[in-house]
Amino acid sequence: TRGQRSYWLVELVYWRDVKTTGVVFGAALLLLLSLSVCSIVSVGSYVGLALLSVTICFRIYKGILQAIQKSDEGHPFRLYLDQEVALSADLVHKYSDGILQKLNWTIEELRRLFLVQDLVDSIKFAILMWILTYVGALFNGLTLLILGLVGAFSCPIIYEKHQAQIDHYLALVTNQVKDIVEKIQEKVPGLKRKAE
């Protein structure tokens, strides 16, 4: 269920099971670093070759072992070959409906921002786009993914250990930003939000 998946994700990024988190973080970081050096086709081919090498060697090893011991255990991957791997129509509809809902919300929000339904929100969006032009000039998308992955696996645990100090400074910054926004809204005509 959704609650179990989010619980598992929280347990993962908070490093509750260090071994599992280390494997997931290491594999994801290795994949992203590989993609920064090689093309996605090369990385996919190398990963496929590595998996095939392991499974072929294991199959040959088990075959030799069965021949020496004169046993008839059968195919070593029979358990996995007999499992059903097809996606159910219900599962596909469930996830595609969720994606469609998020896509429609995104389109609505972009329309609202680009057609300036709310001047303050559109200006905030313009400032965000302007900042992202500088971010884009400094980093490519893959570098941002790597930084995001490292942040996702380090920020939660750092916050958990230093929550009081972080909350204190975050409150100070939030109050300063609110004061600045209020001053700007008072000085510039047309920027005050309408009462909702």
From TrEMBL:
<dbReference type="GO" id="GO:0007420">
    <property type="term" value="P:brain development"/>
</dbReference>
<dbReference type="GO" id="GO:0005789">
    <property type="term" value="C:endoplasmic reticulum membrane"/>
</dbReference>
<keyword id="KW-0812">Transmembrane</keyword>
<dbReference type="GO" id="GO:0021554">
    <property type="term" value="P:optic nerve development"/>
</dbReference>
<dbReference type="GO" id="GO:0002040">
    <property type="term" value="P:sprouting angiogenesis"/>
</dbReference>
<dbReference type="GO" id="GO:0007411">
    <property type="term" value="P:axon guidance"/>
</dbReference>
<feature type="transmembrane region" description="Helical">
    <location>
        <begin position="20"/>
        <end position="37"/>
    </location>
</feature>
<protein>
    <recommendedName>
        <fullName>Reticulon</fullName>
    </recommendedName>
</protein>
<dbReference type="GO" id="GO:0071787">
    <property type="term" value="P:endoplasmic reticulum tubular network formation"/>
</dbReference>
<dbReference type="InterPro" id="IPR046964">
    <property type="entry name" value="RTN1-4"/>
</dbReference>
<dbReference type="GO" id="GO:0060231">
    <property type="term" value="P:mesenchymal to epithelial transition"/>
</dbReference>
<feature type="transmembrane region" description="Helical">
    <location>
        <begin position="138"/>
        <end position="159"/>
    </location>
</feature>
<keyword id="KW-0472">Membrane</keyword>
<keyword id="KW-1133">Transmembrane helix</keyword>
<dbReference type="GO" id="GO:0043005">
    <property type="term" value="C:neuron projection"/>
</dbReference>
<dbReference type="GO" id="GO:0043010">
    <property type="term" value="P:camera-type eye development"/>
</dbReference>
<feature type="domain" description="Reticulon">
    <location>
        <begin position="9"/>
        <end position="196"/>
    </location>
</feature>
<dbReference type="GO" id="GO:0061053">
    <property type="term" value="P:somite development"/>
</dbReference>
<dbReference type="GO" id="GO:0014069">
    <property type="term" value="C:postsynaptic density"/>
</dbReference>
<keyword id="KW-0256">Endoplasmic reticulum</keyword>
<dbReference type="InterPro" id="IPR003388">
    <property type="entry name" value="Reticulon"/>
</dbReference>
<dbReference type="Pfam" id="PF02453">
    <property type="entry name" value="Reticulon"/>
</dbReference>
<dbReference type="GO" id="GO:0048936">
    <property type="term" value="P:peripheral nervous system neuron axonogenesis"/>
</dbReference>
<dbReference type="GO" id="GO:0048922">
    <property type="term" value="P:posterior lateral line neuromast deposition"/>
</dbReference>
